[in-house]
């Protein structure tokens, strides 16, 4: 009975704390009031076009903040990979620790995806989808850090996810398509080229899927912050949830699509005998 009472009391305390937090958020939002008119449209417009908050790249040209984010994420991934290769991998053991198990699970996941989708040619495919998946996942989570940098106009900017820029999303989509196209040509020559060219809309769909999904998280957070009287704490929760979901979903979707289409274009042609047997079975 005592344990039951303790569990009930804990639940009551948790509910009371949640109610108190929600009440505090509501009171704070009412006291603060609505944001200034025009701020929402300006923020949404700049989030998509990046016309105002730009950075000077070595004093040569002005670039979108997403490009600076891409440089930072790429540098972090390369340094992390070098450190793992030099310091961690030589110390791996037969009985893996937590870090070794995490690395092996990540590599094994993408390696199995490549082998399942393309049994014949999967060496380079596994490396590419692992690299692309890490870049999308880490690049999307980079937005959660809220890294602040000063733009060219002296305005402080929270660095966005690299793929929230349409140019970065298009580059990732076309790079994946070129990997598929190259795999088809190397494996099946003209036949593979024809198979890949049939999916001419693939890079466009990949690009806009990435861009739309990652940008939607930012826009929803801005809407919650500017348009609803819940601007204390709630945007943080909404932003974290959307960012995590997009990081996981978009990483899986792009790598799965790339692996699937790569397997189709690299599939060797079936012998004529097998085709005849299938035709006979269909006729029977």
What does this structure look like?
- The chain is mostly helical.
- The chain has one domain.
- The chain has 10 helices and 4 strands; from the N terminus they run H-H-E-E-H-H-H-E-E-H-H-H-H-H.
- It has helices spanning 2-32, 39-49, 65-88, 98-117, 123-141, 166-188, 190-198, 202-227, 234-266, 272-283; strands spanning 55-57, 61-63, 148-150, 156-158.
- The protein has a two-stranded antiparallel ribbon with strand order 1-2. A two-stranded antiparallel ribbon has the order 3-4.
- Helix 4 crosses helix 5 (123-141), helix 4 (98-117) crosses helix 9 (234-266) and helix 6 (166-188) packs antiparallel against helix 8 (202-227).
- Residues 32-38 have low confidence and may be disordered.
Give, in order, the helices and strands.
Answer: HHEEHHHEEHHHHH
- Strand percentage lies at under 5%
CA radius of gyration is: 25 Å
Stretches where pLDDT is under 50 for at least 5 consecutive residues are 32-38
Q: Reading side by side through the largest sheet, how are the strands ordered? A: 1-2
Major β-sheet annotation: 2 strands, antiparallel
How helix-rich are the residues, as a percent range?
A: over 70%
Give the termini separation.
72 Å
The tally of structural domains comes to 1
Overall pLDDT level: 79
Supply the number of helical segments. Answer: 10
Number of strands: 4
